[in-house]
Amino acid sequence: MSNRRNFIKATALSVALASAGLLSFTAHAADTIKVGVLHSLSGTMAISETALKETVLMTIDEINKAGGVMGKKLEPVVVDPASNWPLFAEKARQLLTKDKVAVTFGCWTSVSRKSVLPVYKELNGLLFYPVQYEGEELEKNVFYTGAAPNQQAIPAVEYLMSKDGGEAKRFVLLGTDYVYPRTTNKILRAFLHSKGVADADIMEEYTPFGHSDYQTIIAKIKKFASEGKKTAVVSTINGDSNVPFYKELGNAGLKATDVPVVAFSVGEEELRGVDTKPLVGHLASWNYFMSLKNAENDKFVKMYQAWAKKEKLPNADKVVTNDPMEATYIGIHMWKQAVEKAKSTDTDKVIAAMAGQTFKAPSGILSKMDEKNHHLHKSVFIGEVKADGQFNVVWKTPGPVRAQPWSPFIPGNDKKKDVPEGM
């Protein structure tokens, strides 16, 4: 009898505490799985990263409507590191220690990823990174759903050197001044050397984040291109600097037929703020384009358009999808599958369950997470800018390409293992 009275008292106390809001966190935490969203919503990178935040929220909504993960709803925790690289680490620590997220989807620039890596390693957190990058990294706590250099940069330059791509003989390596462009261009310079291109035929230029005056650089490119051999520009400019760069390209009359530009960080979202008519024929190398025709992409594009209208996003009737958005979408679904396979959100168990995961991607391929190296196998597409800001695919790989995190064009990489440290 006393046990029954104690149970009734405990139940009454729980109800009273819950009514007062004192038990709400515990009950809430038990019913949901927290998901961190670590993207710049202000500053120079907001032009690119805001759409990735929306993609995470849209995908969480899609998963929750389908029953959640292991019967639990996903709860997004959104923070704004504001294009401030040290702040990324601070916000990452907040997500892991205060908010207790099970996984984080975030970062765009490599400098932001490098900033948060020590935090995820120290606290054994899990980060999904959705953007093309320079490679030369392989971490246990990160899954790289964007492209490694051999899945974007190398195929793009090979295309420029081919007959179909215009048989370029001279190259301008133009980027924002940080680790991704500099390391990618180090790899590309070594690759060009292997193809017989001399240093005299390679021009390399960098500008700071947020740079807006490209008149002098465009003039230098025109002069370099006028010296006899077919010239192409390889652009690793990131963020809102792409808008003035492409505007100046148009103002200078530098047409794709004269000096083609292939970009690795410009997609449909970045072109929304640019008059694309003077840019017709310039190129981008990605693993996805909005213009791809297949059932999965049709569903993905319509879902995002409907999401934009429901959430009343700016210019909701003109939203576009792009490669890092697709990589984000794939990553969240693969994480969900891995959690359900592991029957746990425990980081180590999910990491083990991620190996070999597959997902029918909006690109139209069966996307696969490599069994060992934490990278997706990805098809490569090269697209020409159209007047409407979309891309017409002019070249693609025969099938998915396995990532090489350690580029064979960097000395000593042949001795490095294709498995994350600590695995």
Note down, in words, how this protein is organized.
- The protein starts with a helix and ends in a 27-residue tail after the last strand.
- Helix 5 links the parallel strand 3 and strand 4.
- The chain contains 13 helices and 15 strands.
- Helix 3 packs parallel to helix 12.
- It is α/β, with parallel strands linked by helices.
- The N terminus is likely disordered.
- It has a seven-stranded mixed beta sheet with strand order 7-6-8-9-10-14-15, sandwiched between helices.
Name the helix and strand elements from N-terminus to C-terminus, one letter apiece. HHEHEHEHEEHEHEHEHEHEHHHEEEEE
Per DSSP, the total helix count is 13
The poorly predicted ranges are 1-29
> What name is given to the CATH topology of the domain at 150-289 and 410-415?
Rossmann fold
Helix/strand class: alpha/beta
Helix percentage range:
25-40%
What's the mean pLDDT score?
92
This entry's quaternary arrangement is single chain
Largest sheet properties:
7 strands, mixed
Shape: globular
Number of strands: 15
CATH superfamily of the domain at 150-289 and 410-415: Response regulator
Tell me the strand order in the biggest sheet: 7-6-8-9-10-14-15
Strand portion, in percent? 15-25%
- For the record, give the distance between the C-alpha atoms at the N and C termini, rounded to a whole number: 55 Å
CATH architecture of the domain at 150-289 and 410-415: 3-Layer(aba) Sandwich
